Amino acid sequence: MKRIAVLTSGGDAPGMNAAIRAVVRTGIAAGLEVYGVRNGYAGLINGEMERLTARDVGGIMQQAGTVLRSARSKEFREEAGRRQAIRKLAERRIDGLVIIGGNGTQTGAFELFKMGFPVVGVASTIDNDLYGTDISIGADTALNTVLEAIDRIKATASSHSRAFLVEVMGRDSGYIALMAGITGGAEAVIIPEVPIEPDDVAQELLDAYARGKSHAILVVAEGAKPNAPHPFQ
Questions:
Q1: Residue range of the domain that includes 7
Q2: What is the value of pTM for the model shown?
Q3: Nearest to 200 by CA among 211, 187, 212, 184
Q4: Among the options 56, 95, 127, 129, which is catalytic?
Q5: 200 tagged catalytic
Q6: Based on the domain organization, do 64 and 107 belong to the same domain?
């Protein structure tokens, strides 16, 4: 193996640039040529690749987002699109691909692997919902950001004797909501994995107020689904 490429795809996550830097500099240290693919799988299909040096990734660790940028690609979901991507890699004589991203991104990586192209998947998603890793790139930063918000909201809730609902990311996974709710001292946490009745949540809060509670924080993952026919209001 003499040449590898690295790409980021899907939603950006804190730490992606640090991962890009690590891939590039580790590859160069191992005697490899390293190429960066711009705009995710869409860029891969279009052949948007350029060779990267150690200097190219200098000073990017603290930058948010991804310097390689990201994009969705409907074409890549089809076999014809994936074959086009492999052709573009062959044109540059790329021997392997490092793919940084979340669920959808790693699904694409697996499809390339099944077609015989060597890939390494790097788990990068704030939802922390990828099998095989304890914590994915971006999850810790996201959790701490939510906790900071809860701490600030709690001060206002306490001052005005109010209840606040904090909605966080998590379409299918309640990791952020659960960890932030426990650590931030929320009165209720609502996650996709455990459907609940909105009336039950309301009763829990009423009971807490009856015991002398003067304020409340509810943390809700965006994908939480109630059992009741009406949504959370």
A1: 3-124
A2: 0.88
A3: 187
A4: 127
A5: no
A6: yes
